[in-house]
Amino acid sequence: MTSPFDLTGTTAVVTGASRGIGFAMALALAEAGADIIGVSSSMPSAGSAVEDAVRGAGKQFDGYAVDLADRAAVVDLGTALAARAPDILVNNAGTIARTPAIDHPVDDWDRVLEVNLTSQFVLTQLVARPMLARGRGKVIFTASLLSFQGGINVPGYTAAKSGIAGLTKALANEWAALGVNVNAIAPGYIATDNTSALRADPARSAAILERIPAGRWGDAADLGGAVVFLASSAADYVHGAVIPVDGGWLGR
């Protein structure tokens, strides 16, 4: 009997796939059977670490180098991906800018909103069209704890990730009856490049760690199970959910 978590025969697009959470998600999906299309601003045409990992899992890999702050490039990417009609779209790429709100540069605000929210809507709008036409598909966003909370010194990031939670629900409301699942994963404090400044601050790092019931920072690999679940037929009746993977942070 085939497992409902078996993704053999599917193709998954993962943005921000070159490192961190995106890398881990791409590898988890490949290990579950999906071929991978990886997107990042720094993706080489061949020989990337994520390509090696995916091919090591026995699956195919194609890479696209795209700056998600470039609206025209995102439209071109979405058009190209739509022509390939992938089964799964993981909107994971993101950026962050840390400055107190009173001094937060508007240019930083604009770039964070463009990469973390607007580009994801534009890409999803294009890639979802063939999904809706055939009556099936999975769209997964990477939300954040700051989809639920305010954060400190990251007003643009918080606004964008709050927007992702709302967008997840809005798209699910429109597309659930058409066979396309739209959900999000909200990672907790994961040891990645985006949290390096926090981990380098002894007082802030200790305060965060004290708040996490699991007693540790998360690893990128901790997101693998959730993304495979939401990409699989096991989640066919899951729509508009924002699932925390946070070591218990939100339950504290």
Structure summarized in a few sentences:
42% of the residues lie in helices and 15% in strands.
Describe this structure in words.
It is a single chain. The chain is an alpha/beta fold. The chain has one domain: Rossmann fold (3-Layer(aba) Sandwich). Helix content is 42%, strand content 15%. The chain has a 7-stranded parallel sheet, sandwiched between helices. Helix 5 links the parallel strand 5 and strand 6 (180-187).
Salient structural properties:
252 residues; 7-stranded parallel β-sheet; Rossmann fold; alpha/beta; 8 helices; 42% helix
SSE layout:
Blueprint lengths: L10 E5 L4 H12 L3 E6 L8 H8 L4 E5 L5 H14 L3 E4 L14 H29 L2 E6 L12 H21 L4 E8 L8 H5 L1 H10 L12 H8 L10 E4 L7
Parallel strand pairs: 1-2, 1-4, 2-3, 4-5, 5-6, 6-7
Helix pairs in contact: 1-2, 1-8, 3-4, 4-5
What separation lies between the terminal Cα atoms?
Answer: 40 Å
Instruction: Please tell me the overall pLDDT.
Output: 96
Number of strands: 7
Give the overall shape.
Answer: globular
Radius of gyration: 17 Å
